[in-house]
Amino acid sequence: MSAEAVLRSCAAAPPGRLRVWLGVFGRTSAPSLGWSLNGVPLAPDAVHTVRPLESARTPAMLKENPGRAFSGVFDLPLPQTSNASRKARVEVRLDGGNPLSAELRIMPREVPEGLDASFNVLITSCFHWEEDTGGIVGRMVEDIRKVYQPDLVLAAGDQVYLDLPTLKNFQDDLPWLADKFEQDYRRNWTEESAYAQVLSAGPLICIPDDHDYWNNYPLPAPHLQNTWSEEGRGQWALAARRMCEAFQHYDSTPFGAPLQFDVEPLSFFIADTRTFRTPDLKHMMTEETLQALTAWVSHCAKHGRIGIFSTGQSLLMEKPSLFGRTTEDTELPNYEDFGVLMKELERLMREAGDLLLLTGDVHWGRVTSLVPTDSLLSGRQAYEVISSPSSLVTTVGSDFFARLRQRFSGNAWERHPEACEAPPLFAPPGLQSRFQVHTEHLQRGNQVCLLSFQRRGGNVEVTPRYFPLDQGAAPVTVKPFLLRHGE
Q1: CB within 8 A of 475, min separation 6: which ones?
Q2: Residue 5 pairs with which residues in a beta bridge?
Q3: Which end of the chain is more exposed for a tag (fewer CB within 10 A), N or C?
Q4: Alpha-carbon distance 410 to 424, whole Å?
Q5: Strand partners, 262
Q6: pTM given for the model
Q7: Which of 428, 216, 418 is nearest to 343 (CA)?
Q8: Taking a C-beta distance cutoff of 8 angstroms, is the pair 464, 334 a contact?
Q9: Distance separating alpha carbons of residues 206 and 208, to the nearest angstrom
Q10: Residue 329 burial by CB count (10 A; 0-12/13-18/19+): exposed, middle or buried?
Q11: Concatenated DSSP letters for 238-250?
């Protein structure tokens, strides 16, 4: 695709619509748009503007009028034939010029029937472009698509590392920061040798995490001078949030609001637990998000949906100490509203059925099952699947010694941490039940994970497959598990 513009399919389109994210680059003003679908021009009133084409940088983030990125989100009407084929050829003309086109996937409305049919979700997180300048992750995902076409791509945090390189002097200046951050996004969103092939592998949904802002956002980071003052954190956060909104937000709801959609009998709740964290550790989600979560749980119970909850960080991490959350990162259990979140997820299991959690962040992969000890939840289970990283971030200092160890050990993943087993008992505040935890699989190294959902009567079987991002490495298939809705 031309670097002048990028078209990308997005998740959560209304029935009969294809949701498209459009990025336009190197312009000083937003162009006029002319759309075609499968070779047929669309009348302007047939295209619904979810978010208009706007400059990624606001006026306060600009010096003069430079060429820059514009982005918008649009819903295109789908003829019934396109729904059946699950793909469509989209063309857009900028200011009446030559058409720029892409073949985009259409997300299904339900998990398909049939022994060989599946709904495929590709999970990826934590991509540092300087560690993958050869485009390994893109080539590997292209190979995956030849066998398992993703119906949804879940980018579960750290799509960019705005706080790198570590030793770079970041100017404490809003236009400078916005320009730097926009370049980071443009590289990962457009360059085939970066992350673009992954993000375009299927309908996309993104969850921001700390490095989409800075390490341990919103708290100060010891190695980032810009975060040492309230004013410095404010300017950085303003520029990073605007880029996140322009590149990672694909809905008409306010940025940071949860995204909800059904692929019958599944129901997804995609929660941003990073953007609106408070430094006093009281809140990781807004009150509006918690209200939406309560409504979603009731929706799953009423309509017999199997709940899939996704956020950037694992819910099963132990609560870090003061030193850990100051020097590394805070985890979800550090926040007071974590108990409210867990109470609602437990209610989902009581009233709707099994629960699946999808996350990233930790730089290793894991599949975990949780069995409640409460007799009222007898027969219910929860599962968590983690996929991280797709390209391990550089760590100044320790990487030098890791590469020395790798030279002698021959282990391709020497720099990567060992995957951690989950704690055997999970009993966070807010729950009536405790959960026995079983680690089903651990995955080390750069990776993506593909989940294949298949109908099994009224239930859904899930098969996780981890793909090591190493040329010639074989995928690892994890034992399937069954998700059941309430009777």
Answers
A1: 465, 466, 467, 468
A2: 24
A3: C
A4: 32
A5: 267
A6: 0.95
A7: 428
A8: no
A9: 6
A10: buried
A11: HHHHHHHHHHH--
